[in-house]
Amino acid sequence: xxxxxxxxxxxxxxxxxxxxxxxxxxxxxxxxxxxxxxxxxxxxxxxxxxxxxxxxxxxxxxxxxxxxxx
Length: 70
What we know:
The chain is mostly helical. The protein has helices at 20-23, 28-65. The chain has 2 helices and no strands. The mean pLDDT is 76.
């Protein structure tokens, strides 16, 4: 019987060496996630600006159509 069956050092293959940034979750995939998040943010800002402009335009036209006086 083997003397040391609890010693599993070296079992499981080799692991890739990770840089400090990759260990903290800042690897290449995180950069891609940041880009997609930035694209989504830009799209949201664009939509909000369009809605604000269209509502401002409709408010202006409603003010012009309303009768003046009280």
